[in-house]
Design brief:
By secondary structure, the chain is of the alpha+beta class. The strands form 6 sheets. A 6-stranded antiparallel beta sheet has the order 2-1-4-5-6-7, with helices on one face. Strands 8-20-21-3-22-23 form a 6-stranded mixed beta sheet, with helices on both faces. It is flat and about 200 Å long. Residues about 1065-1070 have low confidence and may be disordered.
């Protein structure tokens, strides 16, 4: 944004005025005598741009009648060009309208108009104080952030005496302006506020600490009273619970004991009645058992008589059985042989004769079928022999075809076809060509790696583009260095830390100011780098000046190290995650990823290159071997291709071979069919043979059975006698078994009766003993009953005493009694002795606690109240203490931040200030200090010190003068002005902005002609922007020629009237 035109009307004694400020790089001078109204022009600029330093009411003419309305208008036109070009049309005009009615406040209206043609605006916005959206605050923000022409924020307008005030200014005021320009005042205010906050927190902490100590002592007293109260309550409660619980347990125990004894007495009375009844029953049972014994003995005698009678019958039957068995044995001996044969016969005599007749007919039929089948079998066997001869001939021919086909198919399987072989030959030829190209490529890479290895052995690791740049600068006779020749990682860095510098590590530094870059690597002129301090290592970034570097190259390495540091200072251009980020975009790595910034990386790269040389040597050897193998394969395929063509011709006659195979298959199928028929006929033959054998065997058996039946007819009477005797023998044996079973049953019954009689005898003996025992039991029960009645009377007496004690306690401690009664465990009650001991212990404890003196019933409430207050105060103390630590830490951090920021900015200023002062044969120094006054307030001073080169003595601040109005001490007026101007230039250079213009009022009022021109040239050279200079002096032609436009402000006090007369000294390029 470049000022292009200024207009104003209604301002002081000026008529409507237009000042042409056009020209992007054209400098403008406005001159005139003192009091002519030059500064009014800067005030108009400031008023239009809403500067807080301009009082608009001061622009009103003092010659305006009081009853007349003041109307004024100011416009400032900008051309959208220069470094700070914004996203807006070509021209932007800012205007201010002022109206003040008599006796009324001033009314202002700002407006912004924009368009590509002057006075033909495309867009306009008005800003008034009452508008909701477009008010003066919005106007100020638009100036700051959208158009970037805020005169206060960017220090675009230096009003009257502002540029020359630094030398005569108090060091504290000088520091204030310095801190405002660099944003240090905010950090300073934060630090001062943190100091005040620490002091306030310390006072609060002291008060809180004393409160905590006092409340802690009070809490200790209340705790002792609470402990005595709680101990008393504990004993009272525990003793009362034990006492009441024991009495309740005794009550339950006595009640249970009385109930138990009553039940026991009733049980004993029942047991006594049961014993008497049992005695009567036992006597009755004993008498019954005696009668049963007599009955059993009578039955036993009767059974013994019956057994004797049955034994005699059994002997008679046994004799009859023996006689019959003797006769059967004689008959069996006579019939033994014929009987064995007869037992094997399964058919009757009639069945045997019918089977023989049927068998004769079947044999005749089987013999006929056998002869017929034999004839068919012989004819089929002859046909099979003829088929075998035909199959043998065809099979031989097929086998010859198969062998030939196998050979040809194997060849075609291997080579597919003559066309495929030809393609393979062509492919091998192409591979050979490619491998020869690879051979050439590997040879080239091997040469490159050998060259790189030689560079690495010389401690040089350069990329191809770096080598190109180095050769270029060598041809231009300019010294150049690769970044790795100047900088390396420090010893604590890891190799992977080098990734942070990927985007700049291939940078080339050359000893010059400007040169054409031969490629797209970073090329940095060393003469344009001015470090603000001497550095050889950056520990945070883990880099340093390369070890062992020569003294001649060391300054270049320091500049390179400082240049790298600038990327990590949160500026517009920075490095983050290895990427360069600037307002125009993002840039990544310059070359492929390699490690080049450490000795360790160099050694690793050397090993990698050696390994690559080995690998490429092997690859080259493999490629050469592949070329030889492919050449050999091509020769072999050329010799085999005609055989493949023969195989293809053989495969064309496939149909003939298929017909032969088909005929062979048909002959084999016919032969197999005939062989199957032969097998069937043979099976039939075998079946007929087996039938003939079976018929012969059956005929022999039937004839043998017929002979047996002939013999049996002769022995018929003996058989009938034997059968009759056998039946009689079976009947007698059955009678014998029956009688024997009856005798065994009687003997078993007798044994059972004997056992019953013995058991009954034992029962009678036991009953006698039981009757005696029942008498003794009745006497024992009578004694137990008497004893239990006495125990029950004693328990009732004890229960009455316990109930009386419980009634008394229920009256004294009703709540405790209710609690114990509700919670007492009555299921598992200990022994009465233990309960009585517990009652005595509880009673003693309870009575002692009731009568204990000096117990405060409100101790617990008092303690809780004091404890809550103590905890509140202690918590407040801890919070305050933590807050104090935090405040102190924040104060120290802010202090460190403030000192670091001041040191950095002062160091930057001093570098430039020294450089500027040296050009005028002066030594310059900028320093600062801080101190506390008696009221503990911190004051900051910024000193500007200067002396002529060659002079001795300590340098003093340029504002120091002799005391008491004396003269003769301090610097001259010209030196004050020079130091102020050069300090202001250093301040402007140190700001992180680059606007397109600056307005300086009374810029050279105290400088001589020589210094005036030199200072102007220095401003032009360093600021590189349009300068608008207001000066009251007359100037030489050489100085005037430095400006493209010059204006003279004239004032006639008699009218009064001021006017601006312009003379164009040089036509600008735009015009």
């Amino acid at each position: 944004m470049i000022p292009w035109r200024l207009t104003f009307s209604g301002v002081r004694d000026y008529p409507p005025t237009l000042i042409d400020l056009s020209g992007e790089k054209d400098h403008v001078m406005i001159t005139g005598p003192n009091g002519a109204g030059k500064s009014t022009i800067t005030f108009c600029m400031g008023a239009v741009l809403y500067s807080s330093k301009v009082d608009v009411e001061g622009l009103k003419s003092r010659n305006l009648p009081p009853d007349e309305t003041w109307k004024a208008k100011m416009t400032l036109l900008f051309c959208n060009e220069g470094v700070m070009k914004i996203d807006a049309p070509s021209f932007v005009e800012f205007s201010l309208r002022i109206i003040q009615e008599p006796g009324q406040p001033i009314k202002k209206e700002f407006s912004i108009s924009s368009g590509d043609i002057i006075n033909n605006w495309d867009h306009s916005i008005r800003y008034t104080s009452g508008d909701r959206f477009y008010n003066f605050t919005a106007y100020k923000k638009d100036l700051q952030y959208k158009y970037k022409v805020d005169p206060d924020l960017f220090y675009l307008i230096w009003y009257q005496q502002e540029v020359n005030q630094f030398a005569v200014m108090n060091p504290e005021e000088r520091f204030r302006i310095f801190s405002q320009m660099h944003g240090i005042d905010k950090v300073q205010r934060d630090w001062e506020e943190s100091m005040e906050k620490v002091k306030e927190t310390e006072e609060t902490l002291k008060s809180a600490e004393s409160n905590v100590k006092f409340m802690k002592a009070e809490l200790s007293l209340k705790k002792n009273a609470l402990d005595r109260f709680l101990a008393n309550q504990k004993r009272l409660t525990e003793g009362g619970k034990l006492y009441i619980g024991s009495l309740l347990q005794l009550e339950v125990s006595y009640k249970k004991e009385i109930e138990r004894l009553g039940e026991l007495v009733e049980q004993l009375e029942g047991d006594l009645l049961d014993a008497k009844d049992d005695l009567v029953i036992r006597k009755s049972l004993m008498e019954k058992s005696v009668l049963e014994i007599e009955t059993y003995k009578t039955k036993r005698d009767k059974m013994e008589v019956q057994i004797e009678s049955d034994s005699k019958k059994l002997a008679v039957i046994s004799d009859s059985i023996n006689q019959i068995q003797s006769r059967l044995d004689v008959l069996d001996q006579e019939l033994e042989t014929i009987t064995e044969r007869k037992n094997k016969v399964t058919r009757t005599e009639k069945e045997v004769n019918l089977a023989l007749d049927k068998l004769t007919e079947v044999q005749k039929k089987t013999n006929f079928e056998f002869a017929q089948n034999n004839d068919h079998l012989n004819s089929k066997k002859d046909a099979v022999g003829e088929a075998v001869e035909r199959i043998a001939k065809i099979s031989h021919q097929v086998e010859i075809d198969r062998q030939a086909e196998k050979s040809h198919l194997e060849r075609l399987r291997q080579y597919q076809s003559s066309h495929a072989v030809q393609q393979t030959i062509d492919s091998l030829n192409a591979k050979t060509v490619r491998n020869r190209e690879l051979e050439f490529d590997y040879t080239q890479k091997l040469n490159d790696f050998n060259i790189e290895l030689s560079l690495l052995n010389e401690d040089r690791d350069l990329s191809a583009r770096q080598i190109e740049s180095m050769k270029y600068f060598q041809s231009q006779q300019i010294k150049a260095f690769a970044l790795r020749e100047l900088i390396e990682l420090n010893e604590g860095a890891k190799i992977k830390d080098e990734h942070l510098y990927n985007s700049i590590k291939y940078t080339i530094f050359y000893d010059g100011k400007q040169a054409a870059a031969p490629n797209d690597l970073y090329h940095v002129p060393l003469k344009n780098i001015i470090p603000d301090r001497m550095i050889t290592e950056l520990p945070l970034l883990q880099i340093r000046v390369k070890d062992g570097i020569s003294e001649e190259v060391l300054p270049c390495a320091i500049k390179a190290l400082w240049w790298i540091e600038q990327f990590f200072k949160d500026k517009s251009i920075s490095i983050k995650n290895g990427l360069i980020i600037d307002p125009m975009g993002i840039r990544g790595s310059q070359e492929k990823n390699r490690y080049i910034l450490s000795v360790k990386a160099l050694r690793i790269r050397m090993q990698e290159v050696k390994k690559l040389i080995e690998d490429y040597t092997i690859k080259l050897s493999d490629v050469k071997d592949a070329i030889a193998a492919e050449t050999k394969s091509t020769q072999e395929l050329n010799s085999i291709i005609h055989q493949v063509r023969e195989s293809e011709a053989f495969m064309v006659c496939e149909q003939e071979r298929i017909q032969r195979k088909k005929k062979l298959a048909e002959e084999i199928a016919a032969k197999a069919k005939m062989e199957e028929e032969v097998k069937e006929l043979e099976k039939v033959k075998d079946k007929l043979v087996r039938l003939q054998i079976e018929h012969e065997n059956l005929e022999r058996v039937l004839k043998e059975e017929a002979s047996i039946y002939e013999e049996l007819g002769k022995m018929k009477d003996k058989y009938e006698e034997r059968n009759r005797l056998q039946k009689q023998l079976d009947n007698e044996k059955h009678r014998f078994k029956s009688e024997k079973r009856n005798i065994e049953l009687l003997e078993d019954n007798i044994d059972e009766l004997k056992r019953t009689i013995s058991t009954t005898d034992r029962q009678v003996s036991n009953m006698v003993d039981a009757i005696e025992g029942a008498n003794q039991s009745m006497n024992r029960i009578e004694n137990q009953k008497s004893n239990k009645i006495d125990e029950m009377d004693s328990a009732k007496l004890e229960l009455v005493n316990v109930i009386e004690e419980l009634s008394e306690l229920k009256t004294i401690v009703a709540e405790l009694y209710s609690e114990v009664a509700a919670n007492v465990i009555l299921e598992r009650i200990p022994s009465v002795v233990q309960i009585k001991n517990n009652r005595e212990n509880g009673k003693v404890t309870f009575d002692h606690a009731r009568t204990e003196p000096d117990i405060d019933p409100a101790a617990q409430e008092n303690y809780q109240t004091v404890k809550q207050e103590y905890e509140r105060l202690e918590s407040e103390y801890k919070r305050t203490n933590i807050l104090l630590e935090q405040d102190k830490e924040r104060m120290e951090n802010l202090k460190d931040q403030l000192e670091t920021t001041i040191n950095m900015r002062v160091l930057e200023l001093q570098q430039r200030f020294k450089s500027y002062m040296s050009q005028f044969q002066f030594e310059g120094e900028i320093s600062w200090e801080s101190y506390e006054d008696r009221k503990k307030r911190t004051h900051f001073h910024l000193y500007i010190k200067a002396r002529k080169e060659g002079h001795r003595g300590a340098m003093e601040d340029v504002s120091i003068k002799a005391r008491g109005g004396k003269v003769g001490k301090g610097v001259s007026g010209g030196e004050e002005s020079l130091s102020s101007l050069l300090f202001a230039l250093a301040l402007l250079q140190n700001l992180q902005t680059s606007p397109g213009f600056i307005v300086l009022d009374e810029f050279d009022s105290a400088l001589d002609e020589n210094r005036k021109a030199k200072v102007f040239d220095l401003y032009v050279q360093e600021l590189k922007r349009k300068l608008i200079i207001l000066t009251p002096k007359s100037h030489e032609e050489t100085y005037l020629n430095k400006f493209s436009k010059a204006f003279v402000v004239q004032h006639d006090p008699t009218i009064p009237k001021s006017k601006v007369v312009g003379i164009v000294k040089k036509v600008s390029s735009r015009e």
